[in-house]
Structures are given as C-alpha cells and as structure tokens.
Amino acid sequence: MKTIVTIDSISVLHERLGYPKPKHPLITLVDLTKISPGQTKQCADQTVSLGFYAIVCKRFEGLLTYGKNYYDFDEGTLLFTAPHQVMSVNADLHIQAGWALYFHPDLLYGTELGRKIYQYSFFQYVTREALHISEAEDAILKECVEQVKREYSQSIDKHTQGVIVSQIDLLLHYCSRFYDRQFLTRSKQHSDLLQQFEILLRACFDDQNRAESGLPSVGYFAQLLNVSPAYLTDTLHKLTGKTTQELIHLEVIERAKSMLWGSEKSVSEIAYDLGFEYPSHFSKLFKSRTGKAPSEFRHLN
C-alpha cells in the first residue's frame, strides 16, 4: 500500500524534488526534466497530496495516477489540481519535456482571482478530462509561466503579488480558451454525452419508484456517465446553454405540468412522485420557473 505524503509548502516541495530553496515562499515554476530519476523512483512509492494549486504540463512516457484513474500522457497535456487532491506516478515514468507551476492559496488572498478561481472548473476535472494542447498553445502558456518566474525571481516589493497574480489570471484565461477549442473539436463525443444524459434523465423520471429514490442530483448523472460533475455541466452548457441542474429542473417542470393537467393527484402527491422530500420545495421551484403556483397552473385551462 502506498504511503500518503502531504506537502503543504513550496519550500518542502523543493526539498522533496531536490531543488534549491525557492525564491518566493508561495509560488514556483519547476522544470520537470531536471528532476533526477532517483527522485522520480522515490515518489513512485508514494501518493502525494499538495496543499496548493498545480498546473502541470507534461510530455512523457509512462502512467500517472490521478484520483482512481490511470492516464497515459503521450501528447502535450495539461493537468490541473486544486489543494489537497492526490496523484502518484508510475515507477517507469520517463519525462521527455514539461513544467509545473505550483502556487499556494495564500498568494491569491485579497485578490479578484482568489474570489473567482473556483469558477475555473477544470481544477476539479478527473484525469481523462485533462487539456490536450498543441505546440503553439504550449508556447503561449510557457511564455506566461516564464513571466511569472521572472517576476518572483526579483526582489519582492509591493507590486510583486499583483503582477504575479495577473499573469496567473492570464494563464487561466488562455486555458479556458483552449478548453473551449477542445469542446468544439470533440463535438461528436460531447453530442453523444448529451444524448446519453437525455436518455438517462427521461428514464430517471419514468421510474415508478422515484418517490423512494428522491430527486436526482448532478453527481448522480455524472457517476452514471463516468465523468466528473464539473465536466458534465461544462459540456451540457456548451451544447444547450443550460447547466445540468437547469436541465434536471426543466424535466421536473415538464413532468409536473403533465401531471397537474392529466391527473387528479394533489400537489403534494405530485411533489413526492417527482422525488421531492418537501412539497414546499417543489412549489417554490415550479413558481420560479413558470410564474405560477402549481395549484394556479392546474386551473389555467
């Protein structure tokens, strides 16, 4: 069984990698090709949990484990992890090229990026949803991280944090653009995902035991489709303009309308049949979507 090692500071990370002391306590750019084979083999016996954000760009032969999945990075690939996610590497890993930008959450304290970084959902993706980048895109991102390195390598002053954070923000904006490109170039795969989701959504509300099962969640569908909730929502939003939760609610409302007009069941019975634990929650959702309370809607015609 692998040992779980927690690394909470940039200085400890440098020690583990055999790097000299960091020039900045909260951020570092690591050239992965300069990590000795001995360090890689040592890390292969451990699962590592980092206390900071990581953006890792790799071209290598071998397998990396991220969460419960194995991923073969045979092309230029970007992997994002948020604090306290875990990863480990295969003992036969051979890095051909690559860099990793690590930055502590404290670096973002009091900044606009610190308030909105959770919106970059790729930090929550499972490994198979990593970003595949071209050589041209790799060059753009490398320019950003090299600018970060130049800034933190100088003497720290009152402008240092702002300049570094603005460069990270620019980097993440580029990553968002490249993810959008990836969604477009893989549109067939994503259309299939939408179709599978719609089939599961209909089947879910066709279930006669919905009252016992409860209202389905985004995580429920993501698990059935073998993707992360963030990836599912991003994909559906790109294709439909609506989030997974919104699509679930739309199905609920359409089913509710049919039941209100086509049955004698009370509003409470309909709410329970649809999986709501409390009828008041159903009534609130219905009114927010239609502008009418369920009882009012029933008597429109």
Automatic annotation (TrEMBL):
Q: What keywords are annotated for this sequence in UniProt?
A: DNA-binding, Transcription, Transcription regulation
According to the entry, every stretch annotated as the HTH araC/xylS-type domain falls at 217-300
Key word Transcription present: yes
Entry-linked InterPro entries:
Homeodomain-like_sf, HTH_AraC, Tscrpt_reg_AraC-type_HTH
Query: Annotated Gene Ontology MF terms?
Result: DNA-binding transcription factor activity; sequence-specific DNA binding
Does the record's keyword annotation contain Chloroplast? no
Name this polypeptide is given? AraC family transcriptional regulator
Supply the source organism for this entry.
Spirosoma sordidisoli
